[in-house]
Amino acid sequence: MGRGFLRNQAGNVAVFTALFAIPLCAAGGIAIDYARASMVRNFLQAEADAAALAGAKGGPSGNDQAWVNNLRSNVQQRFENKALVASLNASGSWIMPTDFSVTASASVPVTILAVVPGLSKQINVSVQAVARFSEPVLTYNPPVVSQLDPDAADYNRIYVYCYNAKNKDKADKGRTQMTAIADNAGTTYNYTMPVCAAGETMSYRLHNVRNARTQKSKWDSSRAEFYEYYTDTVMTAGVESYNLGVSLLETVLCANRNACKPVREGGVIPEGTNRTPQKATAACAPGKFMYYGWEDRPPEGGGSDRDYNDIRIIIECPTVATTGNENVWLIK
């Protein structure tokens, strides 16, 4: 009878099952909750990568924080509104002049593990993405139109050059490869367009000599009354801006070459005197053309009819030179 009692193990199974039930449930809960946390982390990393790349693409002067806001919105739509994440944080900053960093973190509330004593009620996840920005190289073709008023009393000569704002305090003021392309005295210029390096933008210089169009000896004389105007063009999110200091220049973006003609001829170039010059506000994308209309004397000094057609230049928008690499890439 004693040996029969010892061999009777039916009750032991129930005891062992009860003892192992709690750790088995805990293990299952851990697997489920950590799978959810991993899903959130993977989504957060993908969004941080995208925000870092998009934020870096515009360079330090671009609207990089808009992409961080977009990250927050995407995560909230995917998880937060379904109570799958809490305490979402995201921020972006330039940790170097060329490197844009995006960090994001969130808490993932646990479900099954919440009933297990001593365990955290949430799983914290965090990610970082760093994208490196490299200034694109813009390639310009020679102007398709470069007309200067042949009846003006002043002598005018137009140059193109490359400008780098980072070098504005150097001896050359950041202006290199100064190249004359046209004047209003009928001079023929044989030239090759400057090739601007990364970080440089094609710019324009007006050399104006008062009442000297028919007096060649005065064109480059330091004793003549002359003025130099430089656009010192910079790009912000693909849009040109100028540092002339006076209202000499009108810019009009044309959808194609045919549109770059006066309004009376069916084009988009404005006409008329005593008006405020237009300023192009959209990016000069490949395939489009930019019209530059100049006054040869600043309207602020008087004596200008403000028609912005003394000097007319039409140039095709630059292409972005590629060498097999994008101008932004992830480094972390």
Please outline the helices and strands:
Layout: H1 2-7, H2 10-57, H3 65-78, E1 86-96, E2 99-109, E3 122-133, E4 137-139, E5 145-148, E6 155-163, E7 175-183, E8 201-209, E9 226-230, E10 234-236, E11 239-241, E12 249-254, E13 289-294, E14 311-316, E15 319-321, E16 328-330
Helix pairs in contact: 2-3
Q: Concise description?
A:
The chain contains three helices and 16 strands.
Mean pLDDT: 85
The main pleated sheet reads as: 4 strands, antiparallel
Number of helices: 3
- The proportion of strand residues reads 25-35%
User: What structural class should be given to the helix and strand makeup?
Assistant: alpha+beta
Helix-strand pattern, N to C? HHHEEEEEEEEEEEEEEEE
How big is the Rg? 33 Å
Helix content bin: 10-25%
Number of strands: 16
Shape: elongated
Low-pLDDT segments, ≥5 res: none
Distance between the termini: 73 Å
Cross-sheet strand order for the largest sheet = 1-2-3-16
Please, could you describe this protein's structure?
The protein is α+β, with helices and mostly antiparallel strands. It contains 3 helices and 16 strands. The strands form 5 sheets. Strands 1-2-3-16 form a 4-stranded antiparallel beta sheet, with helices on one face. It has a 4-stranded antiparallel beta sheet with strand order 5-14-13-12, with no helix packed on it. Strand 10 and strand 11 form a beta hairpin. The longest helix is centred in the N-terminal third of the chain and has 48 residues, at 10-57. It is elongated and about 90 Å long. 29% of the residues are buried. The model has no long low-confidence stretch (mean pLDDT 85).
